[in-house]
Specification:
The structure is a homodimer.
Chain A: H1 3-8, E1 18-24, E2 30-36, H2 38-47, E3 51-54, E4 59-62, E5 71-78, E6 85-91, E7 107-110, E8 113-116, H3 124-128
Parallel strand pairs in A: 1-6
Antiparallel strand pairs in A: 1-2, 3-4, 5-6, 7-8
Amino acid sequence: MSEADWLDQVNWSREGLVPAIAQDRDSGRVLTLAWMNREALASTIAEGRAVYWSRSRRRLWRKGEESGHVQWVETVRLDCDRDTVLLSVRQEGGIACHTGRESCFYLQLQDGAWREVDPVIKDPERIYKRDK
Amino acid sequence: MSEADWLDQVNWSREGLVPAIAQDRDSGRVLTLAWMNREALASTIAEGRAVYWSRSRRRLWRKGEESGHVQWVETVRLDCDRDTVLLSVRQEGGIACHTGRESCFYLQLQDGAWREVDPVIKDPERIYKRDK
């Protein structure tokens, strides 16, 4: 079966995208929601790591390419409408969020306000520092 | 704090929507991805059950209104970009999918094809049958 078949069976939006949820295979936590186009999903399978489409930068984005926080992909699922992807991942560093937290979903609604309920594991300045 | 504040802090898309992921609080499984507009999220909080915006029917959709498979909401989280919602839910009947499966994500990519890897718990004809 050619690669085109399973990629064709995804219900891409008019913009050619689907949302992709990454779930930690160990903690079970939902880590991120990002977007994939056809090339991103094909690359994810080919490389075994999460590759997304950055809508703001309009380019492929290999998760962890700057931070080192790669999402190694164990399984890829599709939902009944074939328009959402679910990745089971091994999260490099145990940190998915650019704020240095395990998960991007660290805000919880409590008493009518969004509260930060998860700890910062690593200071973002240490994650993203570059050799000058 | 008025209701408007926390609703205003969500980054609604140009269409006024955000994706909402429902995760089973017991099994940890990702059950569904659906969409919410402002009214759907406000109703979810007010009613303690998942209320989505059906993009195809263009109306509010109280999950389980036909099937009985209500998603009772325990916590509501928001991600760092404030444009995706994560619900921790107690899934009535243990079935979230209209196909009678626990989760909508029952297709897994294996050897270049999407395979049905989860069992049907209840025949959809029995879920949706109506008194005539």
